[in-house]
Each structure stands twice: as structure tokens, then as C-alpha cells.
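Write out C-alpha cells for 2-dehydro-3-deoxygalactonokinase.
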Amino acid sequence: MMRFLSCDWGTSSFRLRLVNLEDATINGEYVNEIGIQTTYQSFIENGNGISRESFYFGILRDEIKSMGDSLNVNLDGMLVVCSGMASSSIGIKELPYANLPLDTLGTSMNLEYFPSSEGFNHPLLLLSGVKSADNVMRGEETQLIGVVRQLEDFDGNGVFILPGTHSKHIWVNNNQMTGFKTYMTGEVFHLMANKSILSKSVTFNSSENEKFKAVFTEGIKVGAENALLSVLFNTRTNELFGRYSKEENFHYLSGLLIGNELTNLVQEKEANIYLCSEGKLHPNYVMGMETLGLKAKVLPNQWVSQSVIHGQIQVLNQNINNEKNIFLGSF
């Protein structure tokens, strides 16, 4: 069975997985926090005159070796498919964004193939991102292609919600990505809870109880019904007036921001809405959509977790079919 190395290289994270091409089975995984931003800073400080590509390939070579050693598997010469921020201005090589509309079959992605070399004994396929007239994304388009690949009953139309530091809402019509919006929900929450005056009024508490859920739901409603800048300070007065504890306020602030993001979907109630979330954000977005009456199709966590792999396989299969000569010997 043919195998390849799936590399999802984000701003602050690095994930490498050994994958069977035919059925997307994962044979091994290697994860750390050596993201593109850290790698770029290391290149600036320690590059010593070598090219950026060579420096990044050196990092990638060492990580692949570490993965091979941990799995007791020889990975020499195996094809690497890399998506995320690796194609950005601080990545391996900056690739131009593809333009909208972008098909969900992966045939119109911008990409670049690097044959194996003396310093990096792996052929590598680098996938770029997508741009609209006023927005960009790198990585989420691959996720979306992978999500669609796993939807057996997809009719070619829908709105896909990808929560995160910078949440994406992506519109698909007739199997084409036709538009998307970026919501800085996660980053604004981090800034408000850690760097602003509101930080004095919130305390993180990961435990679950009904009061936290009720306060979060209240935040969802207030955030959805009001201009965000007019209600953020409620977080401060909630604590000053003894309405909520600092732990409860943490969930209230989260609800405000998620509610303000999701209220933009109310006009899409007749559309097929797909929630593509995992981890700690998953229950919050499910609760937020239920509170606002949004009937979303909540995709299984495993589908979302493996969406990058399926997206890379989809793009890889399209290009294997169209350009078999460049991949000869890669598997």
C-alpha cells in the first residue's frame, strides 16, 4: 500500500502523520510546537547565510527522522505533502494564493513540487492558500476539501464553520468555494481575557457545571443581539456588581464573542450549515448554534481531525492523475 507523510505546519504547531494513500489510515503521528513562526525566527537568528528553503528542509528532515526513530520505521525518500502556513511569506517558500472560486475537488489549488535533493531526501508537494478580494486563508481550504471528501450525501452547497483562533465561515456553491469570512474570535478572546482591563474580571476554570453553561448561554444571547463593543464592558461590571464570579465571567466573555460571530449566520437558516470543530471549542459552538436556533450538521470530531489528510489526498490524487511523471518513485 502506498504511503506518504502528511505535514500540517501551522503558525504555532507542527503535525506530521504517516498515512496510507488509499484509505487515509494513519500509521503514526508526531506533534510538537515548532510552528512556522518559531522556525522563521530561528532562521533569522541562525540562518548563517543559507537559503530559507534549505533551512526549513533541514528542520523538516530532523523532524521526520525523529518520527521515524519513534516509530522504528525507515521514512527515507517518502513523499511529503505539506499544507498550512508553510507556503506563506514566513514559510518554506511563499506561493501565490489561488483565486476564488476554488473547486472542492482540489484541481485548482496552487502548489509547487520539490524533488528530493542531497540535503533533503524527500520529494515534497507544497500546497498554497486561497484569497478573495479582501480576505485570505492558508490551510482551511485543504481542511474544507477534506471535509467534503468525507460527506457522502453532500449536494454541492453549504456554509462551513471552522472555529479557531481566526474562525472561518466558507460558502460553497455548486462544489465551488465562492466566498469566506474571517472572525478573530479566538484571538480577541485571548487579548480581552489576558491583556485588557477585562482580565481583572475573569479567571479560567475548566470544570463543567450548569451555572457556567447558563452564563455562557446568556453571553451568547447578549453577544448576538448587540454591537460587540457596546457589551464587552459588561464583563467588567458583572464582576464589580457581583452578578457573576470571575470564573463565571470567563464563560460569559466567551459566550459574548462566539454569539457575536454566530449571529451572522442567522440569515443563513435555510442553508446547509456544517460545523467543523473539535477539541475544547466543539461543545461551545454546538451550544451557541443551538441557543441561536441554527440547525447545523455537526460533523464527527474524527472527520474534522483527519480533514487535512483527506484534503491532501484529494489534491494529491488529482495531481497524480494529471502529472504522473513528477511523482514517479515518490512512493
